[in-house]
Amino acid sequence: MNQIYNDPIGHWVVVTVAITLLLFVVLTATAYTVWFERVALGRIQRRPGPNRVGPFGLMQLAADGIKLAFKESFVPAETDKLLFVIAPAIAVAAAFLSWAVIPIGLWYNVQYWIADVNIGILLIFAFSSLNVYAIVIGGYASNNKYSLLGGLRSAAQLISYEMALGLSLVPTFMIVGSLRLRDIVEYTVHWGWYNGPIPLILLTPIGFVIYLMAAVAETNRAPFDLPEAEQELIGGFLTEYSGLKFVMYYLAEYVNMITVSALAALLFFGGWYLWVIPPVLAFFIKIVLFLFLYIWLRGTFPRLRYDMLMRLGWKLLLPLAIANVIVTGVILVATQG
Amino acid sequence: MVADEETGTQSEHPTPLRGPREGVPAKPEGERPGVVADVAALAGGLKTTLSEFFRPVVTTMYPEDKTTRSERYRGRHYLRRYDNGLERCIGCELCAAACPVGCILVIAAENSDENRVSPGERYAKTYEINMLRCIFCGYCEDACPVQAIVLGPEYELSDISREKFIYTKEKLLEPLPPDVQARLQASAPHPRPLPDGERENKTK
């Protein structure tokens, strides 16, 4: 199956099919992530969550989508019309682009990917950083002080956490010796009698903790959802957005959530490998567990104050990430010569 | 006015300006919890929410399930009849007088031997309640000397036009739900905690 990628025509066929499938799968997954979040949050608060539209409320997102799609496409006066429309599009594009380099194991020796680039993880960082442009531009174009504040917060938050996020993964690259996501998933160790795959979290546990925190901040999710902060900023950069433009931001947020969950599974938990469980199911289970973690965090912790967020990013996560890199390097040199 | 301690002058502002840490109670020395305690606190929060996640949902699924109401719940009104079929209402308009929002309209007419509607001299020829105005205080029920009007248990009164909220005599004379009827007969009038003596006067 994987040889088909080497055939010039077969490659294009596979990629076209893969892109179509991916759009469908990720969009559907996003819809059900929203459902999952609403139900899980409800259960944390001992509510049932959406349960009216369809069995178990599973069609809720269809109903919401139709409602939002038929809303008036409203652009407030005195806004920068072009930027106002472009910003949500950037958000969606950036969110989906990451999936171009994320490989998925379909069966025991069949994998799927759109682009198997050797700097995959760097590309994902680049694309996920684009998301901040959507938020800053959207906040600026709205001509609304709350939106602008939300956009500025987002920029500051991104600077604070992007570095920790990147550095938290450096030990992983040092151990594996590759930035290609497939290589990281396929990483095997040869320790005496044990030859086989190992979840990288065992080798870089601190990197995982830093990644987890930085990823929550990176996707602007509670407790780091300062750009939105509905209690202080009405809705932050989202204040003036409604209808389909709002849907695009919303979609981007949830796609990003799935992306960082998938990355956590790929980078630290062996991707699609989980004992004898079929790979696609294993990958799915791991992503769902991370999504649940996200929702659990949102249901538990109050939003951090702005200075706390900065302090955590610059004074705790960043030094810790750098120390992690140095310690890993020392250990690697000591053990491998 | 707050006296400034250093200069001895009166500060114009009711609350004097303060430095960043001034007035903020200092944290006790040596009591700052360590990283371990902080992480334990976060874990405690996560544990609480996860245990709530697995506990049963407390929501009442309203249209399917309903919460039980008090026996003395004040819902829509009913006009009662005697066992022989005669209407209780004697058209005295005390309910209309007692009504704080004036939503009751009573027009009385004389009973005659050919047309006997109620046992007394007069009966209510027209009896209307504007349910849009009604605040369900139950004063009409308290005011009625013959316990003709009672507030029943129904509270789902929504409708599609304003006209339908003018409840006419025909609608109000609908038979009471059996359980309410039984309760009224068992303890006429309502078991309502009033000061001693007040109820006796009215039942006579």
Describe the protein.
The complex is a heterodimer of chains A (337) and B (204). Chain A is mainly alpha-helical and 337 residues long. Chain A has one domain. Helix content of chain A is 65%, strand content 4%. Chain A is built from eleven helices and four strands, in the order H-H-H-E-E-H-H-H-E-E-H-H-H-H-H. A two-stranded antiparallel sheet of chain A has the order 1-2. A two-stranded antiparallel ribbon of chain A has the order 3-4. In chain A, 42% of the residues are buried. The mean pLDDT of chain A is 83. The C terminus of chain B is likely disordered. Chain B has a domain of 127 residues: Alpha-Beta Plaits, CATH 3.30.70. The longest helix of chain B is centred in the first third of the chain and has 19 residues. Chain B starts with a strand and ends with a helix. A three-stranded antiparallel β-sheet of chain B has the order 4-5-7. A two-stranded antiparallel ribbon of chain B has the order 1-2. In chain B, strands 3-6 form a two-stranded antiparallel sheet. In chain B, strand 1 and strand 2 form a beta hairpin. Chain B is of the alpha+beta class and 204 residues long. Chain B has six helices and seven strands; from the N terminus they run ββαβαββαββααα. The chains are: A mainly alpha (337), B alpha+beta (204). Chains A and B meet through helix 1 and helix 10 of A and helix 1 of B.
Q: Nearest-angstrom radius of gyration of chain A?
A: 21 Å
Shape of chain B: elongated
Mean pLDDT of chain A: 83
Oligomer: heterodimer
* Fraction in beta strands of chain A: under 5%
SS strand fraction of chain B: 5-15%
Profile the largest sheet of chain A: 2 strands, antiparallel
Q: Give the strand line-up of the largest sheet of chain A.
A: 1-2
